[in-house]
Amino acid sequence: MCGIVGYSGYRDCSDVLVGALSRLEYRGYDSAGIAVFENGKIEVAKCKGRLKDLVAKMEIDGKPQGNVGIGHTRWATHGEPSDINSHPHSGEKVTIVHNGIIENYKVLKEFLIEHGEKFLSDTDTEVVAKLLGYYYKKNPMEPIVTIERTIKDLEGSFALGIVFEDFPDVVFATRRESPLIVGVGENESFIASDVPAIINYTKNYYLLDHDEIVKLENGDVTIYDDHGDIEEKELMTADWDMDAAEKGGYPHFMIKEIHEQPTSINTTIKPRIVDGMPNLEECSITLDKIKSFKQIYIVACGTAMHAGLVGKYVIEKLAKVPVTVDMASEFRYRNPLVGKGDLVIIISQSGETADSLAAMRLAKKLGAKTLAIVNVKGSSIAREADMLIYTHAGPEIAVASTKAYIVQLSVMYLFAFELALAKGAITQEQCKALTAELQNTPGIISDVLEKTLEITQYVGTKLVATESLLYIGRGLDYALSMEGSLKLKEISYIHSESYAAGELKHGTISLITDGMPVIAVATQSDLLEKTVSNIKEVKARGAKVILVAREDFEIDEEAYDYLIKVPKMQDILMPIPTIVPLQLIAYYTAVHRGNDVDKPRNLAKSVTVE
Length: 610
Ligand code: G6P
Prior knowledge:
The chain is 36% helix and 24% strand.
């Protein structure tokens, strides 16, 4: 999704903007641009392509020289990626960058055309720029009044960075639904879509609420509420630093983040375990509060939804509470039978996914209690949920989610243990034993990383020329296969499907041809025999089987071509160590194929539009 930045201070603004945008690259984009005040005039540089294309363009055309400006990376929604559709866009005496979608842009465009405006691009953003210009003419030298009046007309989502020709030292910004933070340094200030953009300048930032407006001027920050009155806000401090936002010697963020998983789990679960028992009181979750839920919905998108699938198996098995897992985009439009007495769990790394946020609001409206499991502090989902468990994965930069997924799993386990206890479905002793086993997972993952790096690299070389493959598993292994398959297709662009092993015979087995790779997951002791017979069925039809299995399982060598062993844990906890080789297979296959692993084509890290 688009990334926006803005700067007011004393440094070379073009450099600051390009640097900050480069740390938002993970969001996905197809064009980039900046607008900087040079000798009191707004100079724009923009083009289709990557930031390096913008830098190359500025080397030829000249880099805007100044200390105040705004910048943008665009992920096309309205209008193809092109130089003209790139941001910034301008209206009368005003230039803007925008993240989000203006739903009523057509009506507004017609209105503006009737009033003599001419449009250069196909974007909804240019409509906002022209509308700002229109209201500025009516309210000359009144930027705040102009912005307030303009956003009253807008429907949809937006984070806007705005500069007015008449205010050459000032950057304005506002937001509704789309994320925006305001960084505060010494004699300099920033706006950005996300904290990594500014972390090498400052750790201190404000979160803007809907329709608030901020003014950055000579390092001072003034925030106006939705009535135009100045307000004081709480200054937040990022609890991670530049190193976390840099690759730290790894070739890609994804592999760095895979290696960070033991630490991420540790940081996430440690504060929530007291005397060997799960304790979620700091998240306002108590045994008393959760014991009455009879029905649970887990709603999320992408990888977070896959964490929910594991959660379903674990909660149902341990706490005996029925769980329905929904994709947020389906949940919100299928009139879900959710109501009072139900719990709706929303899982989201970014806390800003448009469908997940809308699903949560719907659940609240229908009377359900909501619990958010979120990684990004202060994000919209985190702010609006009734109960909140932060995952402490730190910033996840690679588009393909790895460490955020594993900590979502760890939190699902803690919650399931607590719920099972509250329901009287497990004893204190059983709960303690499960919690102790969960505490072992960081060490076990480190072990898996060490032992499977080589074999997964090798398997990656075998998959490099594959056009299509299957993942199979049963029960928790099936839930995990879904995530393994998604990871592979996201970054390697190989067509991949995940199937419940027992369901293969009902259609999908017809796809198996000689030499087709099948990645089989077998970690559940009660399902082992059945899974192995499904593996043999595909093997007999020519499949090349890559088997990921628990190390102590004795499996007939005839059943597989390559074996990746995972250390033994209790069945229910096996997803945590087992996801690691699946992540590594996806990573190395994509690397061998020469793909842009951290920024796969067409994907965005945080999907803030429907
Ligand atoms: C995008 C990302 C995925 C992510 C999904 C949900 O599709 O590329 O990695 O799993 O959104 O994002 P969330 O921030 O809500 O977890």
